[in-house]
Amino acid sequence: MSERRKQYPFDIIEPKWQNHWDSNNTFKSLNPEDEGFDPNAPKYYALDMFPYPSGQGLHVGHPEGYTATDILCRYKRMLGFNVLHPMGWDAFGLPAEQYAIEHGIHPRETTEKNVTYFKEQLKSIGFSYDWDREINTTDPDYYKWTQWIFLKLYNSYFDKDENAATPIEKLIEKRIADLPDETEEERRNYIDSQRLAYIDEVAVNWCQELGTVLANEEVVDGKSERGGHPVERKPMRQWMLRITEYGDRLIDELDNLDWPEGIKALQRNWIGRSEGADVHFELPGTGEKITVFTTRPDTLFGATYMVLAPEHPLVDQITSEDQISAVNEYRDKVTSKSDLERTDLAKEKTGVFTGGYAVNPINGEDVPIWIADYVLMTYGTGAIMAVPAHDERDFEFAKQFEIDIKTVVQSDTGETHDESICFTGEGIAINSPLIDGLKTKDAKKTVTNWLSDNGFGNKSVNFKLRDWLFSRQRYWGEPFPIVWDKQGNHHPLSTSELPLVAPDLEDFKPTGDAKPPLSKAVDWISYKDEFIRETNTMPQWAGSCWYYLRYCDPKNSEQFISKEADNYWMNVDLYVGGTEHAVLHLLYSRFWHKVLNDLGYVSTNEPFQKLINQGMILGEDGQKMSKSRGNVINPDVVIKEYGADSLRLYEMFMGPLEQVKPWSNKGVEGVHRFLARVWRLFMENTQEGTWEITPQIVDIRPDKKQMKVLHETIKKVTTDIESMDFNTAIAQMMVFTNAFTGAEQRPLSAMKTFLTLLNPFAPHITEELYTILANNFPDKCDSSELSVSTWPNYDEKHLIEDEIEIVVQVNGKLRDKTTINKDASEQDIKDQCQNLEKIKPFIDGLTIRKIIVVPGKLVNLVAN
RNA sequence: GCUCACGUGGCGGAAUUGGUAGACGCGCUAGAUUCAGGUUCUAGUCGACGCAAGUCGGUGAAGGUUCAAGUCCUUUCGUGAGCACCA
Fold first, then answer.
1. How far is it, in rounded angstroms, from Cα A119 to Cα A136?
2. How far: A808 CA to B66 C1' (Å)?
3. Is the CB of A460 under 7 A from strand B?
4. Which nucleotide's C1' atom has the smallest distance to the CA of A661?
5. Alpha carbons A49 and A575: distance in angstroms, whole number
6. Domain definitions of chain A by residue range
7. For A765 and B34, how far is CA from C1' in angstroms?
8. A363, A371, A235: which is closest to A290 by C-alpha?
9. Strand B: which of residues 577-636 in chain A lie with Cβ below 7 A?
10. A480: confidence class by pLDDT, cuts 50, 70, 90
11. Residues A422/A391, Cβ–Cβ less than 8 Å
12. Res. A857 pLDDT band, cuts 50 70 90
């Protein structure tokens, strides 16, 4: 292709218009307080997931979502919307730092370089971003506010009555009123234990290779998500964010969001809410009790044993003399195994009997207590009541160790299963005096009420979601605005001390133990009056949790977002990005947003009203693109050979946005040919090899047929953009082009409208052609540029034909077609169809039972 | 194992929401233009039978509902994604 003559001069046109947009600030959007702001214009906020500026530059997956939002934004502008369409950089994080460590270059330098490259690439695709709103998470003016929000989390607690984050002062007041006599230290411990940002000693995912702890979400199959390095469990003191308090709201408030159901399901699943009951089993003679969580309190009569997690604190107390050695041996075996190995041996259940017994509160029976690693200390209470007849795991365990199995539920259909089958469904309670004959739903309620009335338990809700481990032992992240006193108490910095900038380190390598790299900055660490600074940094997610807010008011030095900007722009009308962020980023953002909303800093409860996930683009071989497979498509190369308009158009023409689909270079050529055909619809090549406008373009009225195609195209493109079916919108524009290519005379008005329709998809070529039209028909072309012109309307009257073609079926089979006047009565249609020559043989000798007429479409003669 | 998506030509994909299956593009075939290649233009392109008009079959498979099913229901097979002892 590079050898070939260019089919149209995109290499000249595209940079020309990109420079034009840049120097004219064509796509600048105004805030309410700005001069020239139109208070009557509706707003539209379309957001792309901002990229991590890696050293490799853009891949073809990036422009997929970006083109989709860009088309919508250009379209909405033409409809008169005030459009917010910003771009920025999620530039903190591991890869830059790893690169820095390996090459001895400061991550700030590589980040800057990468950002420059990314920006240049994005500009070469012709996106209509308002670059004045560009943000960078590593910019102190930005992360000042990330740190500020952290302080808000630190200085808040979750008020269960309000079901909302509340300033910590309120809790302190309440505590002083309730317990005026407690010591300063006691009170501090209590308050600190309630903060939304708190310190906890937890078993964390420590990755030796990366020298940091990782969030649960960053660990996949026992390995780090980035790099695939081994991860081990290790208890460490870490900053945590109390996201679990928001479990209910994060689930319930998904309902009103216009998100793909699959993504909502993923989030619900991740949060993992289950409703049930806590049940206390007494340990005779000790005064102690074991509390279990169950979602099936109705099966309490079928509990034939209990299981504690091997790490459960009561294990030592309940273990009988003769079982001590067996229990200890088992515990040693389990703790020496990594999480991965522990789940690996899930195929066969293991465990040992402790020798202890507890009392089942509902029937007073003694229940043997076992320990087994299929019970996790981190979920529920770390202990379960085992009902082998109605739980697969318990069933497997009971069979293995020959423990009693007692059936207490029969299925609705009345079948009673014997002990050889495990029935986990709902049904009717049996062998359970209190609830015999009750349906599972009612039985649950009855048992739960009985438990709480008698002090043996209560209704309870559990989440799979864990609190968010928020500190990292890395250099390239936001430092915590926290200092420590000599007694080991933490104190927040005042907001006036923000941003807290990390010192420039010569050596920012991980220390190899739990000490963060910042601990090497001896001068920086020591704060006044013998306080020392926190040396952990925040995870990469921090900056991306709120960037969409900053775009609304990116230069504000007084607030992270002004009330006016928040009220006007939020929330995000359309958020487009990859599924890889379905859980983490979207969950974290929603959490922060809700806290900020509770505290009155933002007016909306949810940040992203509508969400679309673009599907991954595979290589030409149908495999995931990767360097090692050598199937990576570089957008720069595509632009060089075919132009940015072709890249944009192809990305949209490949198929539905949300679908996974393979790249095809032939396909790019196809859309490129289409654009060349569009070009030649307007231009012809002269003897000298230059282009000039074709004389076929004339200022005449389109004929009826042309009018129909034109208005069909307006309609289809408009509705398809609204529903984000860009591939079919493009197909319709191809139909238009095919229809007009053969025309001797091409009516100016139709051609102008067509350029407007194509403009959001292929902005460069259309602007260029429009300029040429405007130069040749100066009194017929009104606005100076398509980007600031008005979207056309279609008129239904041009879509209707006088004669309609109707399909004639006999017994549902297509037999003939006939044309009929659009005003024909139903009876006329029926008569005409029955008398068709081709139809007669099919109904000859048969009785017509019924004639079905679908107006304007088809007639079906039912005969036998 | 569980949950959710999706199965339509040689390929990417269309199909008013139950109403002409295969729009549009790629690829392929033939013709025109060209010294030639490329480009461009025209025509054809689901399968079987047929010179043709046409007939029959056809949306992973099997049933069902309906005048009418790619579309709705039941069962089943396959592919992809997510979760994975969450009590």
1. 12
2. 18
3. no
4. B12
5. 7
6. 10-138+544-641, 147-245+467-541, 273-461, 643-797, 801-863
7. 29
8. A371
9. 579, 583
10. very high
11. yes
12. confident
Q: Which residue is nearest to nucleotide B85 (CA to C1')?
A: A374
Residue A147, strand partner residues: none
Under 8 Å CB-to-CB from A277, ≥6 apart: which residues?
A293, A294, A297, A444, A447, A448, A451, A457, A458, A459, A460
Indicate the helix (H) or strand (E) that contains A213: strand A212-214
CATH class of A273-461: alpha beta
Fold of A801-863: Ubiquitin-like (UB roll) (3.10.20)
Per-residue confidence (pLDDT) for residue A1, from 0 to 100: 36
CATH class of residue range A643-797 = mainly alpha
For strand B, give the nucleotides within 7 A of a protein CB. Answer: 3-5, 11-16, 19-21, 23-27, 38-42, 55-56, 67-69, 80-87
CA distances from A498 to A133, A481, A495, A746, A771 (A): 21, 8, 5, 63, 50
Architecture of the domain defined by A10-138+544-641: 3-Layer(aba) Sandwich (3.40)
Scored b (16 or more CB within 10 A) or e, A512-541 reads: eebebbbbbbeebbebeeebebbbbbbbbb
Q: Say if CB A111 and CB A91 are below 8 A apart.
A: yes
Per the structure, the residues numbered 100 to 159 in protein chain A that have their CB within 7 angstroms of any atom of strand B are none
- Work out if A296's Cβ lies within 7 angstroms of strand B: yes
Q: CA at A813, C1' at B68: how many angstroms apart? A: 9
Q: Is the CB of A660 under 7 A from strand B?
A: yes
A342 touches strand B (CB under 7 A): yes
Q: What residue ranges in A156-210 does DSSP mark as E strands?
A: 156-159, 164-167, 197-207
Q: Which of residues 156-185 of A touch strand B (CB under 7 A)?
A: none
Question: A801-863: same fold as A273-461?
Answer: no
Query: Residue A414 — pLDDT band, cuts 50, 70, 90?
Result: low
Where is A746: in which H helix or E strand? strand A746-747
- Rounded CA gap, A572 and A611, in Å? 9
Closest protein residue to B55 (Cα–C1'): A815
A232-241 and A468-469 strand pairing:
antiparallel
How confident is the model over A226-243, as pLDDT tens digits?
A: 777 877 777 788 899 999
Give, in order, the Cα–Cα distances in Å from A289 to each of A225, A307, A317, A320, A405: 40, 14, 11, 16, 24
Token readout for A577 is 């990005």
Report how far residue A26's alpha carbon sits from residue A18's, in angstroms, rounded to the nearest whole number.
Answer: 10
Residue pLDDT, tens place only, A688-725: 778 999 999 999 999 988 999 999 999 999 999 999 99
Look at residue A343 in the predicted model and tell me its pLDDT.
62
Nearest nt to the CA of A860 via C1' is: B67
pLDDT, one tens digit per residue, over A92-146 is: 988 888 888 888 889 999 999 999 999 999 999 999 999 999 999 999 999 999 9
CA of A719 to C1' of B16 (A): 12
